[in-house]
Amino acid sequence: MDETTKKKKKTAECCGYPISIFFIVVNEFCERFSYYGMRAVLVLYFRYFLLWDDDLATSIYHAFVALCYLTPILGAIIADSWLGKFKTIIYLSIVYAIGQVTMAISTIHDITDANRDGTPDNFTFHIALSMLGLILIALGTGGIKPCVAAFGGDQFQEHQSRQLNTFFSVFYLCINAGSLLSTLITPVLRAQECGIHTQQQCYPLAFGVPAVLMVISLVVFIAGSGMYVKTDPEGNIMWSVCKCIGFAIKNRFRHRSSSYPKREHWMDWANEKYDKLLIAQIKMVLKVLFLYIPLPMFWTLFDQKGSRWTLQATTMSGDFGAFILQPDQMQTVNPILILTLVPIMDRLIFPLIQKCGLNFSPLKRMTVGMLFAAMAFVSAALVQIEIDKTLPNFPSSSESQLKVVNTYSTTLNVTISPNEHLLIESFGSSADYVTFDHQDITVSLNTNPVITKAFSLIKGGRQTLIIPSDPTVMYLKEDVKSKPREGKNAIRFVNGYTADLNITNLDSIEPSATTNYTLVNQGKRDFVLRHGEQWCEFSRKFGFGASYTFLIPSTVFSDDCESITEVEDMKPNSVHMALQIPQYFLITTGEVMFSVTGLQFSYSQAPKNMKSVLQAGWLCTNAVGNIIVLIVAELGKLPKQWAEYLLFASLLVAVSIIFSIMAYFYTYIDPAEIEAQVRKEQGLEPEEMEKETIEMEEKDEDQKNEQGVKQTKI
Ligand SMILES: CC(C)C[C@H](NC(=O)[C@@H](N)Cc1ccccc1)C(=O)O
Q: Where along the chain is composition biased (Basic and acidic residues) (predicted)?
């Protein structure tokens, strides 16, 4: 039975949809849960389990994401040239599940924690195992990605073209439902404590649940195997494509003299040796791939949601009254909006546009999607301008900033050479930082006798001059010079008490000493101060992104911690995270128009034996977009973040103009019809041809109207 016949095999239907689709969308839901769930805790695993620094953790994370969108090419080649989509999905899902299990095992600290101190003793083992796991996951997730969407499309018969379009929307909904649930659940699992010998953050559970979901995904897919329409690969198609293109180029070069008549298309130079059908199919694929060239720019903006926009959120306030939103949780707005916008677009907006007689063809939708993404970045720039107004005035690389804290018993007159005079009361501080364009300063205090001391400030840094109860030992302490990470608050204590103090979660602190900064989350936090039998409790409510120095006086125990003074080194964030919602709304509207349409378009414009290849080409635009983000991050940025957002928005507008011109010259095709025409011209399979022609006539006209199809002969 050849493939065309298989396509006509009657499949079980429910409400006009093939029942097999149910297994495919559930499989996609579980797979995306597995992928995004693992991704949600990956950077934290690198940072706090493997103890990598921020730069290494984020670079490896982005490299992994880019790899996940490069491996689709491999999966597509295997599927279209060798195993077929069904077997490729099964085999690569097994690789994927093994990868997830390997990753989960690599996070069990007890495996190498011989001394039972809660940290692994052999990091090489954990790094090697997790890298192996990640490579297998990238192979699996990327490899099956182009096959699953195309395999879903294959389940539909010719008369189900409207259902086919809805399938791609439902498919996208499942992706986002899976990713939304897992991004909410896995961080909670990670926050649990577990372990055999010592209780630690529960990474094995956070990675284990995605591994289980991947196994379920595989089982669900296998469960549907009796119902699928399975198309066999037609030999090593990719190799034939490469050879055919190579021959056309060589042949064209050999006949470059003007004495040879021109051919309609450069691929026609392969006519002498290759089948007309193959040449026609290659032309279809190349036309679409050419159209994809500008598309990575969309993903370059889109993928910055996870990086730049999350960083932007760390400088904002996430207090929504009824709940507190962490900066990285803001990203879940995207899948939530997808779940609401896809049905609205499909059921309301697109039909309405069609009713108005406007031809909103797929390529027009994609162009508008790009413009929405550009508007999202303009919105991000406006929000950034608002944030910048509230940010502290951090020192430039040539400046130094200094603040003075006085824990001496009386008010002091502090003179900082050459002409800075500050009057600072006991257990108080200078109002704000003083900026110097030189590093060497001399500080004089109006004590009796006058105390004078020279200091060298840090270039580009912020410091506090701590004047303790014995001012002769005044000293400099380095301050935070950027907003604390993840919207947390940086706090520290100066011990003005006469003896050592113990403070909850901090090391013991000597008299006159200052602790290093500790990061605390938003909300009410309690600290217990102890010295021997004496203790008192001290509570403070924190917002987002502030920094404080708490001055502990000698009377701290007699007045039950009441006299602790708070010095605000950095104001809490005041611009609300809700202001990011418009930019999320715009980028998600853009995503629905661009990504869901692109998925459908890549399927509908591909010849039947190259459906996965074109899906892989589509996913590759995402990989290139991710790589551009990496390069831009490395190359440094514009001095102002809002300017960078505007630059990206303008670049995308320029790219969308180029894309719209390319789209104008693109003629939509029905690959099946073109293949039938070529076969007819070749005088092949007359019976088969007849059947196809009848079916094509029966085909739903709606799709053509919807897509603005202009049938053409390649
Ligand atoms: C890039 C892929 C083609 C598209 C797809 N991604 C999405 O649908 C995102 N909206 C999912 C998401 C979830 C959570 C946070 C950000 C984005 C995919 O993964 O297949």
A: 691-707
Mean pLDDT computed over every residue of the chain: 90
49 and 119 inside one domain: yes
**Tens of pLDDT, residues 206-258:** 999 999 999 999 999 999 999 999 988 877 788 889 999 999 999 999 998 88
Q: Is the pLDDT of residue 566 over 80?
A: yes
Q: How far is the CA of 334 from the centre of ligand 1 (A)?
A: 8
User: Quick one: pLDDT at residue 685?
Assistant: 56
Ligand 1 pocket mutation pick from 175, 295, 309, 585 by most atoms within 8 angstroms of CB: 175
pLDDT at 1: 36
Instruction: Look at 357-371, 554-568, 683-697, 700-714 and tell me which has the smallest mean pLDDT.
Output: 700-714
Same domain, 511 and 593: no
Tokens 């690959």 found at: 671
**What is the domain extent for residue 680?**
291-390+573-694
For atom 18 of ligand 1, the residue with the nearest CA is 175
CA of 388 to the centre of ligand 1 (A): 30
690 and 577, same structural domain?
A: yes
Other CB atoms within 10 A of residue 535 CB: 14
CATH number of residue 616's parent domain: 1.20.1250.20
Q: Check whether residue 165 and residue 57 sit in a common domain.
A: yes
| Closest residue to atom 20 of ligand 1, CA basis | 175
Predicted confidence at residue 708, as pLDDT, reads 44
How many domains does the chain contain in total?
4
Give the separation between CA 7 and CA 18, rounded to whole angstroms: 12
Buried/exposed code over 306-323 (b: 16+ C-beta within 10 A; e: otherwise)? bebbbbbbbbbbbbeeee
18 shares its domain with 96? yes
Cα 252 to its chain centre, rounded Å, is 44
Query: Which of the listed residues 422, 454, 479 is the one where a domain comes to its end?
Result: 479
Atom from ligand 1 closest to the CA of residue 618: 3
Q: Which residue has the tokens 């969309």?
A: 298
Q: What CATH number should be reported for the domain holding residue 461?
A: 2.60.40
**Nearest C-alpha neighbor of 710 from the set 665, 659, 656:** 665
Omega of the bond leading into 261 within 30 degrees of 0 (cis)? no
Q: How many A from CA of 221 to the centre of ligand 1?
A: 21
Give the pLDDT confidence of 175-195 residue by residue, as tens digits.
Answer: 999 999 999 999 899 989 999
- State the distance from the centre of ligand 1 to the C-alpha of 43, rounded, in angstroms: 18
Q: Ligand 1 atom 5: the closest Cα is on which residue?
A: 175
Predicted confidence (pLDDT) per residue in 660-681, tens digit: 999 999 999 999 899 899 888 8
Residue 9 has pLDDT above 80, yes or no: no
Radius of gyration in angstroms for the set of CA atoms belonging to the chain, rounded to a whole number: 32
Query: Which atom of ligand 1 approaches the CA of 35 most closely?
Result: 19
Q: What is the whole-number distance in angstroms between the Cα of residue 151 and the centre of ligand 1?
A: 19
Q: Of the ranges 34-38, 232-236, 277-281, which one carries the lowest mean pLDDT score?
A: 232-236
CB 419, CB 364: distance < 8 Å? no
pLDDT at 6 over 50: no
Spacing, Cα 134 to ligand 1 middle (Å): 19
For residue 331, which atom of ligand 1 is closest to its CA?
A: 15
In a domain, 282, yes or no: no
Task: For a ligand 1 pocket test, name from 170, 179, 333 the mutation site with the most ligand atoms within 8 angstroms of its C-beta.
Answer: 179
ipTM over 0.95: yes
Judge whether residue 699 has pLDDT over 70.
no
Residues 6+ apart with CB under 8 A from 439: 400, 456, 457, 458, 459
In a shared domain, residues 541 and 579: no
Q: Ligand 1 centre from 176 Cα, in Å? A: 6
Instruction: Name the residue at shortest CA distance from atom 12 of ligand 1.
Output: 335
CA–centroid distance, 306 to ligand 1, in Å, is 11
Domain C-terminal end among 199, 218, 235: 235
Q: Measuring CA to CA, which residue among 123, 130, 142 is closest to residue 60?
A: 130
- Residues within a 6 A CB radius of ligand 1: 32, 36, 175-176, 179, 183, 331, 334-335, 338, 591, 595, 622
